[in-house]
Amino acid sequence: ILNVEQSPQSLHVQEGDSTNFTCSFPSSNFYALHWYRWETAKSPEALFVMTLNGDEKKKGRISATLNTKEGYSYLYIKGSQPEDSATYLCASRSMDSNYQLIWGAGTKLIIKP
Amino acid sequence: GAVVSQHPSRVICKSGTSVKIECRSLDFQATTMFWYRQFPKQSLMLMATSNEGSKATYEQGVEKDKFLINHASLTLSTLTVTSAHPEDSSFYICSARTSGFHEQYFGPGTRLTVT
Description:
The complex is a heterodimer. By secondary structure, chain A is mainly β. Chain A has no helices and 11 strands. In chain A, strands 2, 4, 5, 9, 10 and 11 form a 6-stranded mixed β-sheet that branches. In chain A, a hairpin with a 4-residue loop joins strand 7 and strand 8. In chain B, strands 2, 4, 5, 6, 9, 10 and 11 form a 7-stranded mixed β-sheet that branches. Chain B has a 4-stranded antiparallel β-sheet with strand order 1-3-8-7, with no helix packed on it. Helices cover 0% and strands 52% of the residues of chain B. The N and C termini of chain B lie far apart (37 Å). Chain B is globular, with a radius of gyration of 13 Å. Chain B is an all-beta fold. The interface between A and B is medium-sized, with 21 and 19 residues.
């Protein structure tokens, strides 16, 4: 069974604080790890795609790291703003999944002003 | 760029009726489209993958006669839930892929409620 786990399930963060959350995925025959941001009533928006062990990607105040050997990725948000409130999804793609995306259930982030 | 629309955003139907959901890529040609279902607090679950002009490939446990998928053009795929039952009530979301393997763009989803 291929499972992608995200933790925590939800998170309340004070505006201005930094935060991070985790995505765990099967490391066997890994191909790629995707992060998406999903705001209510909108389409999920692609943030990052990472493929190599040790990859680090950055987009503004949001960054992500990847460890394919141990099967985890961290998403970091620096200086949280109200507009960062969303559900953050990760999805793993591997040969074991026939290269289909296997999704985590998401981390719901709420920024308190 | 890379916008995917999905209609309707919400639909309520009576048990036994059929519902059609449309997924369109507005500014690109989608060689492959995906249909997902999501139950509350659960992950997106892939239902089927469709390539333009060919039959959809359904995931294990998804009834192809119940969830009819048509991908007639490079910009439109439809999912028809036939003879809907209350247990089909869920959030359905489509995504479309261009030629780039990593690039997958999502519609905003459809909330289906079967009464």
